[in-house]
Each structure stands twice: as C-alpha cells, then as structure tokens.
C-alpha cells in the first residue's frame, strides 16, 4: 500500500469477503457457471432456484447453530 492510500474500513472488507464466499459457493456447489437454458424465462427460473437453494441452506445452517455458510458441516451434523 502506498503512503497516501487510505485503508478500507473493516466492515467493507468483511462485506467483500462475504460476497466473494457466497459467489464462490454458487459457482462451486450450485454450478452457477454452467447454467444453460432455452430462453430467458428458463434461465431466470434456474438462477432463482439456485438462489433459493442457497438461501435455504443458510437458514438450515443457522437453525442447526452453525456458521451461515458452513454447508459441509450441515451435512455431517
């Protein structure tokens, strides 16, 4: 970091890390990079299904007393 550059606030860094983690999970676990569809309607439906699945997994983790993004631990708990 240069002498004149300011550091990012801690809350902003944490938010960026959380977003990167969620995007990584959508890419790896839900195969979001390979969404294929015949038209825009089906593409939207597939994306929404993946987002709802991710949201339900987060809620399940919270109900089990785990970290919100600890999906692997949810399966073993």
Describe the structure in brief.
Helix content is 64%, strand content 0%. The chain is mostly helical and 77 residues long. The chain has one domain (10-76).
Explained architecture:
- The protein is mostly helical and 77 residues long.
- The chain has one domain (10-76).
- Helix content is 64%, strand content 0%.
- The chain has helices spanning 10-28, 40-63, 71-76.
- The termini are far apart.
Features:
77 residues; mainly alpha; 3 helices; 64% helix; flat
Summed up, the domain count is: 1
Overall residue-averaged pLDDT value: 83
Secondary structure class reads mainly alpha
* Separation, N- and C-terminal Cα atoms: 42 Å
> Helical content, roughly?
55-70%
| E-strand count | 0
Gross morphology: flat
Strand portion:
under 5%
